[in-house]
Write a structure and sequence with these properties.
about 0% strand, single chain
Length: about 270
């Protein structure tokens, strides 16, 4: 009986180390975290009146500040089919799909940077969810009589259908724009790990610029949404860095506790 229990505990411990070494644990935790993020983000969808009022307030704020340029920018490209399709492509494929690519790339080749960026994304996502719940805002494409064209709906059915998935998408989660904020983190991460190659640094710097124009000309965000998105994402990065500085001792204690606790769960 004792031998059987020892073997079970040893197998459980080996499985724990295997899943940790191969990234299975990390993948499960991150996937669950993002599912929770999208579920909570998509749960607050029944406040259209409040969201519209807040959207109109943002238009007035931008006018007062002198940079209500969204409609003019969209009018520049709306007759250029290739440009609209390109901006749609950046908006859809340059968000979560690119986040996944970055995560895999950093996990395999730049593990320390991966840990920092993972925490930055999760922290900024948590902040964003709270703001979405407290301050729903209609994007330009959903503001009546403002004159915007929903380019995703008109020219990109795949992206539009994904964007309208009721279970996980909140159409009134415009502030902050994590499309832009996370593009800053993506670009910054690529520029940092490729800092010895000028073309990688250039790409990392230009990516958030491209995403900024994409979120505006597709009528998914106001300009000021991007400002808030940048603030939230930088706050997430600051939290991640603070946690990394405080982490080594606490993490060693946590891992030791888990290593002791997990075998005790194995059946005897």
């Amino acid at each position: 009986m004792a031998i059987s229990m020892d073997l079970s505990r040893a197998n459980a411990l080996r499985f724990w180390h295997f899943t940790r070494r191969t990234g299975i644990q990390e993948a499960v935790v991150v996937v669950i975290a993002f599912l929770v993020y999208f579920f909570i983000r998509g749960a607050v969808v029944d406040r259209a009146g409040e969201a519209l009022s807040n959207g109109l307030d943002l238009i007035e704020l931008e006018r007062a500040l002198g940079f209500y340029w969204e409609f003019e920018w969209q009018s520049w490209i709306i007759d250029e089919y290739w440009a609209v399709r390109a901006m749609n492509w950046v908006y859809f494929w340059g968000h979560m799909p690119l986040v996944i690519v970055l995560a895999v790339f950093l996990w395999v080749w730049h593990r320390s940077t991966y840990g920092l960026m993972r925490t930055a994304f999760l922290a900024s996502g948590a902040i964003g969810v709270v703001i979405y719940a407290l301050y729903p805002v209609a994007p330009p494409r959903l503001v009546p009589f403002a004159g915007y064209i929903d380019t995703m709906a008109v020219l990109d059915r795949v992206g539009y259908q994904a964007q309208e998935a009721q279970a996980f998408v909140n159409p009134y989660a415009a502030v902050p724009s994590l499309h832009f904020g996370w593009s800053m983190l993506l670009g910054g991460a690529f520029a940092w790990v490729g800092r010895h190659h000028a073309w990688i640094v250039f790409g990392g710097v230009m990516w958030p610029v491209l995403m900024f124009f994409s979120i505006v000309v597709t009528a998914n965000h106001f300009i000021i949404d991007a400002v808030y998105g940048a603030i939230v994402s930088l706050a997430g990065l600051a939290i991640a860095e603070a946690m990394r500085r405080a982490q080594p001792g606490a993490l060693r204690l946590l891992r030791a506790a888990i290593a002791r606790f997990l075998p005790a769960l194995a059946p005897g």
